[in-house]
Design goal:
The chain has about 170 residues and is an alpha+beta fold. Helix content is about 15%, strand content about 30%. The protein is built from two helices and nine strands. Strands 1, 2, 4, 5 and 6 form a five-stranded antiparallel sheet that branches. A hairpin with a 2-residue loop joins strand 8 and strand 9. The radius of gyration is 16 Å and the shape is globular.
Length: about 170
């Protein structure tokens, strides 16, 4: 975000939407939190209105596949939630992550769902092609590598994930 002039903190990547889910569709609470380069956000505080219980965590980002935790997590009234998606593919529901580093082992969400329809496919290419043609820059969904410029280097991520038929998996 620093190279896009939207933050002065070099560890900040962008905002993500984190929700605790009661079942498959009921959103109990949503928080917008800052994602950092190392994949952390810190603890996510929840209001006193969320009842104590077991919940799945759902994460959305402007260009990533919606990703859910594979396990339920205990959230207490007025407490916080913590969950590490990065240390194993199976931490995401359906093991729907990609390994991005081997030392230390790290996994990440798939990027390229530019229209947020839970699939990375042809309709996402149209959005990216327009931004490439217009030489867009800044904090744009089509900037998949996060360098602040939408160009052909971003297209590689989209092509690979579309060819692998990546889609959101959740209960």
């Amino acid at each position: 975000m620093v190279n896009q002039n939207t933050s002065i903190n070099p560890s900040e990547v962008g905002l993500i939407d984190v929700a605790i889910m009661n079942g498959t569709t009921q959103v109990e609470e949503i928080q917008d939190v800052m994602l950092h380069v190392d994949g952390t956000t810190g603890l996510i505080p929840y209001a006193n209105t969320t009842p104590t219980g077991l919940y799945r965590i759902r994460v959305r980002h402007r260009n990533a596949i919606e990703t859910w935790s594979s396990e339920t997590n205990l959230v207490q009234i007025g407490g916080s939630a913590s969950y590490d998606f990065s240390n194993a593919a199976n931490k995401a529901y359906g093991s729907n992550q990609v390994q991005v580093d081997s030392s230390p082992v790290r996994f990440a969400f798939y990027s390229g769902d530019l229209n947020q329809d839970e699939n990375i496919e042809n309709t996402d290419f149209t959005i990216q092609e327009v931004d490439i043609t217009n030489s867009e820059f800044g904090d744009r969904p089509a900037d998949l590598n996060g360098d602040g410029v939408v160009d052909n280097s971003d297209a590689d991520f989209l092509i690979n994930n579309a060819n692998n038929f990546i889609y959101s998996q959740h209960p």
